[in-house]
Amino acid sequence: MELREIEVFLVLSDELHFGRTAERLFITQSRVSQTVRAMESRIGGRLFDRTSRRVALTPLGVQLRDEVRPAYDELRRAVAHARETATGVSGVLRICVPTYSMAGLHFTTIVREFQRRFPACRLTVTEEFPGDFERLRDGAFDVMCQRHPIDEPDLTVGATLSVEERVLLVRAGHPLTAKSRVDAEDLADYSLIQRSGIPRSMYDEFWPATTPSGRPIARGPAIATTSDVLQLVARGEIVHPTVSSFSTYYRHPEVVEIPLDGFAAVRSMLVWVTDHETSSIRALDDLAREIVGDL
Fold first, then answer.
1. Where are the transmembrane segments (predicted)?
2. pLDDT value at 295 more than 70
């Protein structure tokens, strides 16, 4: 019996759901089904009772799970230890997330899988606005999640974490809520946040000084945190171009989003100081590419 088959069996034993098992293992649901059928054929008995509504272990499945799991866990620890010895993926890896919307919707999966594969490397995630690259250069963080464009010759731009269309955050009842979509030209009638330490290239791309036709866009108050954005939008002092995942991570009962046309999609990626690159950073970057895929 192959190690991958045992892994599929044990994860399905935990989840008792073919779809969630496939998501955890980054394989298709049909692959999970095929693996289970092959195991049952090889063993000569059913491991799971399956109906359209539920999945449950059979007594034979419970016996196999209880006898296999300790050996599997010990083998996984041995493989992880060998990998860490070979690759040097150990110690602490510090990630800075200026806002979680810059990390994308796969970020939690990436972090969880990294911790599973490399238990000797402690991964820390800190939300710190505005994401000043000097925090990488001075060694406060090892990796940062940031948005394109990144034009810094001493930095390496790694895996893409997300590509998202833009939305505009406005207060509930704002005149723009009468529209199903808004355009970049609409921004000329309202104020956007000041730069507030945001990297210049990203700020100019994301919160431009003029509309595509050249109309100036006013600046509103400075901000220090992501919560400031929501409060200012809710009070009607600014409108805020961002991406749709922003509302997944941050909410305010008086703030709504409207699709925003006239700008290119937003790309977020991992970035680090080239001269500070380590085996742990490379392992994180490789894993992000594996999970997110080509965007």
1. none
2. no
